[in-house]
Each structure stands twice: as C-alpha cells, then as structure tokens.
Amino acid sequence: MKKYSNFAIKEIIQNSLYAVEYNNTGFDEFCNIFEKWSDTEYLETFFENHKSDLESGFFDTDTIENAIFRTLEEAKKLETLLVEIAEKGKSDTLNCLQSLFKPLNKSENTKFPIPDFQKSKTYGSNHKSWLRVYAIRIDSNVYIITGGTIKLTQTMNEREHLKDELNKLNLVKQFLIDNDIIDNDSIIDFMEI
Asked: Distance (Å, rounded) from C-alpha 109 to C-alpha 173?
C-alpha cells in the first residue's frame, strides 16, 4: 500500500477492486463503509439523526428498527456481491464491476467512449436501496472506491454527509489525474513505490 500525502490506495481484489485510505487512518473506505453498515449503534445514531428524511416517504420504511435491519441485511449482500463480481469480471466481461457501477451523472449513461476517471456509484440489492458505494472507474473491471453512505434524499446536495462523498469523489479523481494513475498497471506501480 502506497501513501501519498493524505491518500493511500489499498487492493481489495487483485487487479480489479481498490479502495482509498484517507489521512493514514489504517482503514480503507471499503472496510470503513461495510463496518459502519454492520454496526447497529452507528446505524441507530445515523437514522435518529436523519429521522425526518427516513420518514419523508421517499423510502417505504416505518421504524428506525426496520431501517437498521434492512441496512444490515442489504449491506452483507452488497459486500459479497462486490467481491464476487470483482473476481468474476477478470474473465467475464458481462459480469464485471461495470455491470454494478453506474455513472454518478445520469447524462453519462449514453456517452461513448466512457469518460476517463468516471465518477460512479452502485446501490444495495433492494429495489429502492439507500446504500451507496462511490468509486472512480479506471476500466471496465477496475474501480477505486472513494467512500459510501446511506442516501435518504433525492440528491447529493441536500445533506452534508452526501456533499462529503461528492467532495471525496472529486478529490480522488484529481489525485489520480495528478499522479498519472490511468490503468491497473499504474495503480500497481503507485502502490509499489
């Protein structure tokens, strides 16, 4: 794992899935988000703090307890799915990370070629999931996770924790550009320095 100023890149699945570690914390964002989403105390505090969003009708849940249970179940499935698809995507172009991650900006869905350093997101497995994992796309099966959160509002500009995730996407994208990290080989080279 290579540290550069406030960023390090950690390998989650070799030659496929990576995650950023911020500020030499020892925790990469992949581990960080799934640890939070499996912590009932964290979830209870989060949903208490965002109770009005939870009850707004944007999502169909009736209690904080049900929201916690739903998050615990969905997070397990999403973590397993990300790992499985990252592995499969090494040899199967139809079952790769690009099949899970979607462009953050919906207008990029129709652009070809796909923009370099595309800001991306994936959702939990439920139909209308509030779980989000954010990443920068390097290639069809090569993504660097920048963070993740629970999104209970329609846009990312409505709450500070969502704005923070957008800021992390922008910072990591610029970091990758500034350090010529443009493909899997350059990620590996960077991590070995």
From this structure: 19
